[in-house]
Amino acid sequence: MRRRLILLLLPVAALLSVSAGFVYVQWSKGGPGSGLYSRYWSPDPVQGYWDPDNFYRSPDSVSGVFDGKLCVQCHEGITPGIVADWRASRHARGDNPVYCSNCHGSDHQQLHMPTPLVCANCHEKQHDAFLDEARYGFPSHVLAMERAVDAPHFADKPKAEVQSCVQCHSVATKCDSCHTRHRFDAAEARRSEACITCHSGPPHPDDETYFASAHGQLYLAEGKNWDWSKPLIKGNYRAPTCAYCHMDGGRHQVAHKSLWKFGLREINPHTSQNSVLRRRWIDLCSDCHEERQATQWLTELDGERKAAWHKLYQAETMLKKLRSDDLIRPSADERPDYPMGSLWPRERIGFFEGQASAFYNVSAIERDYFEMWYFDSLGAYKSAAHGDAAGVREGHRKMAASLDRIESRAGRLRQLAKTAKENELSPDLSGLWSSGAYTDHNREHN
Amino acid sequence: MRRRLILLLLPVAALLSVSAGFVYVQWSKGGPGSGLYSRYWSPDPVQGYWDPDNFYRSPDSVSGVFDGKLCVQCHEGITPGIVADWRASRHARGDNPVYCSNCHGSDHQQLHMPTPLVCANCHEKQHDAFLDEARYGFPSHVLAMERAVDAPHFADKPKAEVQSCVQCHSVATKCDSCHTRHRFDAAEARRSEACITCHSGPPHPDDETYFASAHGQLYLAEGKNWDWSKPLIKGNYRAPTCAYCHMDGGRHQVAHKSLWKFGLREINPHTSQNSVLRRRWIDLCSDCHEERQATQWLTELDGERKAAWHKLYQAETMLKKLRSDDLIRPSADERPDYPMGSLWPRERIGFFEGQASAFYNVSAIERDYFEMWYFDSLGAYKSAAHGDAAGVREGHRKMAASLDRIESRAGRLRQLAKTAKENELSPDLSGLWSSGAYTDHNREHN
Amino acid sequence: MRRRLILLLLPVAALLSVSAGFVYVQWSKGGPGSGLYSRYWSPDPVQGYWDPDNFYRSPDSVSGVFDGKLCVQCHEGITPGIVADWRASRHARGDNPVYCSNCHGSDHQQLHMPTPLVCANCHEKQHDAFLDEARYGFPSHVLAMERAVDAPHFADKPKAEVQSCVQCHSVATKCDSCHTRHRFDAAEARRSEACITCHSGPPHPDDETYFASAHGQLYLAEGKNWDWSKPLIKGNYRAPTCAYCHMDGGRHQVAHKSLWKFGLREINPHTSQNSVLRRRWIDLCSDCHEERQATQWLTELDGERKAAWHKLYQAETMLKKLRSDDLIRPSADERPDYPMGSLWPRERIGFFEGQASAFYNVSAIERDYFEMWYFDSLGAYKSAAHGDAAGVREGHRKMAASLDRIESRAGRLRQLAKTAKENELSPDLSGLWSSGAYTDHNREHN
User: Which chain A residues contact residue C288 at CB under 8 A?
Assistant: First the structure.
């Protein structure tokens, strides 16, 4: 009822919200860096290192303007490790080295941490490719930070938890997520470890699934002896790494052949647009394998996805039935709103209403569904895509277990509702799946 | 009731089934390759690479008959990586190299993928040892494919799921599961990574448990610097690998000292036959350790198994009680049959009725039991056998948690049955633990 | 009631218990090695290798007194691997090698396995530092064995399970837990693998969290090529290993900067004593990072801990409410006692009454709480401390799931109690979370 009144007031609210500062500022365009919900949180100091353009503040402990050689001289004693890394880098070579000051500035009270734009001064081609990923939408590296801070739960969750998200989503705002400072060696970035720091664990177990594959095992057994100075092209490597397939030839844009993307949604894998992506995928695999075999593996992946969505839709159907019988307690109406939630009131069931909507502040049974989709199914997907046979089986086992749990919870909900009705009691509103304190508390304190 | 009628008709049905094509054709003897349930499924094209003898079809894109040198010349451009692998192999050396055509044939429209029999032309001793494993029954490498396609759920499950099984079970039908193509280097196969591609994840976490052991950690820390050209005998390696223990001396038969095998069944570890296996085990460990210490570790493993079976029997007892009280819903009678299930109607509770019977199409509580046995217990076993202390503890913790879950479900089943009886309702048949659609659907579409 | 009677008899019982052999003998002081509950268990033979000072018995198969050169000569044939390890060690170098007999004795019927005291003959400084860790209490290496055998469940659990604990806790009683025999190379012990054999899995996933961090990935990618002969000081390594941070400079005492320790208890991280530890922590990180950044990361860790304890206290509150309503069944009174449990009767809810109290022999809901604390929360802690972003998120997700499970169980308990009351039934005492058979059985047979 409350919500319906608000809906009637929507046009007014929209106007008010604009004047109240709700206007969206695109993170990547140098806005305040705190996204759609900027009113609700302030950055922790450590965020200055993760999104330096927006939040880094130079320390004022040392004053003076130094040229690069002096930086090196002094830091040789203070932080010899990073100086050694720089010395071993291409930046330190030749007659005209790239010194500390070239990237960090020379006024020690005005230091900055380099952003992709700083690197773009010399590495324009790579930066352009990096930006180009935005064309393919999210998930993508270049939009990673923006999407993190624009998620409703970013403002609503205790910061201690969302910080761990930002740590990796900072791949959008600095280049040393993949190229370790201060070596910045292409040879290093060609190795899978460069990607794995972030690409592990649910919902993106690339670590687990790649290394469990025949490709990954070959890399583990022999990769140490391969010549990593060679470019990522046909014939140079015995087995593919993350970058070999996703950044073939060194292209700094990984969405180039992303067909199913993260497996987040069901797609028609045979649209004309997707046929282009399929072609790229198969061509790449044909560097080593018979083209026909590559095609067949991709068909297997399509089959795995179809089986996964078959299970997901079963869960969705159960939840929709519960909702139409008003048995999901608390209902969307009874739950605390997300920020701006009153403008676009939404039932929150899983993937078809967007990823962010089911992370938190939902009933336990909806969270089960969310995990089935975001953890179990995506894990099965990555396993199938990377050739990790055990992971496919395990992902589907977990999906089946989730279905069982959802069915079991649904049965209990129906039973409770029946008992409540018989005894003329109002339904029990417990069971909100939350993780930490919510909403008002965090908005005030984040 | 239905089942009882069918039982009476069993002799008739048996006769009919023979004439209808149910006759078992042994996979490894060059039959159709689809095993006991061949009527119910057809292979996906990719299966041609996994079971080439039965399903591979040569592509017809290129015609002509080529001798080995010409193969190499052309593929140097098309797939340079695999040519480089071959050049680095022993096959490429000497006056009389083993060319592509020696294994794949020279008519490009009649190419074949090599099976173990092809390799046996030169590597007879290894192939004989490989075949010899069959003597020890399943699990074994040589019977792996046969047992996969002969499992009832192979025909009944969506193919997208069982494909992931076949991918590894193809160890029976081609040698490059362990020896990566086209290098086929013994040094490579001596390393644990050669085995780990398949031996990871439940129910056979050899990966996780070996690498978590002191042996595995030593291998990870130093293995890269060991001389892998040395044979797998005493004194050549600082720590054992998979092959060092299971294929000592290079014997291509891993069942040689398999005492508890996968931990699937409780055994008497001290029969005269098992004493022979114990002796082999202890002798092997004595390459590095005091014999008495090796003996004591094996005794500890026996103790771990005894404790595991103690837990498993507790669960079994609970389930048997539920069954005798007719509280497992749906009962075996109420569930869809496996193919040929009507010939041998079986209650389906866990290990004592065979592994395949409890994978799917069982009630949720039976599946809990299955997972306790097949995942938790086998994980604890592998941990104990490989010296992964944390894994033993974790496996037993999981078994205890499974017991708790089973007890909790049993309580709810009894409660539901009581309520149903009081209200003169028929019992609720929901709760079938399934993973994907079943039976008729798949039999028609697999 | 029974318990109250026993309480009245406590002074008498105390006296009796002393005379009956309950007197505590400190393990590390050369007592019988079986700790507080020595009456209830006897060691398995393999324990002789894990706690050699107390339990090792020399084999009597070979007689004679041999000097070191003879040991080597004979064992070159019997166990060539360990002789090769010794030859590669510093012990074998120079004019005056440390022979087998120097550590194991020369009478083959009186051999012993070296304890830390044996190593201390030459490596006094390291041994002193090792002993010094005791100052910081438990967890610590030097107290690890003592605390294992003094835990009530050590005597009460089937030995097959507690053996896996002792295997790692033997770090207190022999040096080859970290320095592999018979190489004893410092270079080896500097690598993370030296620690990981024990530090993996819940409740101490140091393995998983370190290797998932940027530090760990750098180590995995490049560590093989680093010069491990260098000491663990600033500038020598591109990324930190376990030892670099926890044993900086080679100090054999890892509690030196342990602030939150294992995350077991909530602390005030800003006491004057803890400020000293913080300073050490930050100084160490400043070897490579800006001091301010190190400080901010530590603040993030504090924040993560605060969020974790916020969740843990929610669970505790639920359990306390259940207890005060007498709804935890079986109650502490109704459960089998631990050994000596009747002397100090305790309610057993989680961390605030000590770790050992909630391992086993508790109700299922209490065990849920225990796992939330000991597995989920500690995993999140290690992730935050080691910079494993995904692990923080996953740990908090698991804590939230545990909260949901606890709430769900609590609801069912309340429902069952209500039903029982309405029907004038006594409450159901099922649901004891146990793992294996208990108490009397084990005390007699362990």
Answer: 79, 81-82
Residues of A in contact with C237 (CB under 8 A): 81
Chain A residues lying within 8 Å of B191, measured CB to CB: 221
Q: How far is C288 from chain A (nearest CA, A)?
A: 5
Classified as helix, coil or strand, A92 is helix
CB C315 within 8 A of CB C403: yes
Model confidence pLDDT, tens digit, residues A265-304? 899 999 999 999 999 999 999 999 999 999 999 999 999 9
Cα-Cα-Cα-Cα dihedral sign, residues B135, B138, B140, B146: positive
Q: Which two tokens stand for residue B372?
A: 């306790």
- B436 CB neighbours in chain A (<8 A) are 307, 310-311, 396, 400
The Cα of A282 is separated from the nearest Cα of chain B by a number of Å equal to 14
pLDDT-derived band of residue C442, with 50, 70 and 90 as boundaries? low
C99 phi/psi in degrees, rounded to 5: -90, 170
Report whether C371 contacts C402 (CB < 8 A).
Answer: yes
Chain B: residue whose CA lies nearest to A236: B81
Subunits in contact with chain A (3 or more CB pairs closer than 8 Å):
B, C
Q: What is the DSSP string of A30-60?
A: TS-SSGGGGGG----TTHHHHSHHHH-----
* Cα separation, B157 vs B338, whole angstroms: 10
Residue B107 φ/ψ, nearest 5 degrees = -85, 115
Give percent helix, percent strand, percent coil of chain B, each to the nearest 5. Answer: 60, 0, 40
Poorest-pLDDT segment among A109-113, B45-49, B148-152, B352-356: B352-356
Instruction: Look up residue A398 and give its two tokens.
Output: 């977990």
Q: By percentage, how much of chain B surpasses pLDDT 90? A: 57
Nearest CB among B81, B160, B168 relative to A306 is that of B160
CATH of B296-445, one of 3.10.20.120, 1.20.58.220, 3.40.50.2300, 1.20.850.10: 1.20.850.10
| Domain ranges, ordered by start, for chain C | 296-445
Q: How far is C324 from chain A (nearest CA, A)?
A: 20
Angle at C114 between CA C112 and CA C120, to 5 degrees: 140
With a cut of 60, say whether residue A85 has pLDDT above it. Answer: yes
Query: B257: how many CB neighbours lie within 10 A of its CB?
Result: 17
Sign of CA dihedral C265, C266, C270, C271: negative
Does position A29 have pLDDT exceeding 60, yes or no? no
CA separation for the pair B390, B205 (Å, rounded) = 13
pLDDT of residue A343: 52
Q: Indicate the average pLDDT of chain C.
A: 84
Give the pLDDT of residue A137.
83
Q: Which one of A85, A165, A193 has the shortest CB-CB distance to C221?
A: A193
DSSP assignment letter at A115: P
Structure tokens given for A429: 């509103």
How many CB pairs lie under 8 A apart between chains B and C?
118
Residues B167 and A296: beta-carbon distance below 8 Å: no
Mean pLDDT of chain A: 84
Closest CA of chain A from B80, distance in Å: 5
| Rounded mean pLDDT, C324-351 | 64
Q: Are B264 and B245 in contact (CB under 8 A)?
A: no
Q: Is B412 exposed, middle or buried (0-12, 13-18, 19+ CB in 10 A)?
A: middle
CATH code for the part of the protein at A297-445: 1.20.850.10
The C-alpha atoms of residue B379 and residue B396 are separated, in whole angstroms, by 9
pLDDT digits (tens, 9 = 90+) for B36-86: 777 777 788 899 999 999 899 998 889 999 999 999 999 999 999 999 999
Binning pLDDT at 50, 70 and 90, where does residue B440 land? very low
Which residues of chain A does C407 touch, with a Cβ-Cβ cutoff of 8 Å? 430-431
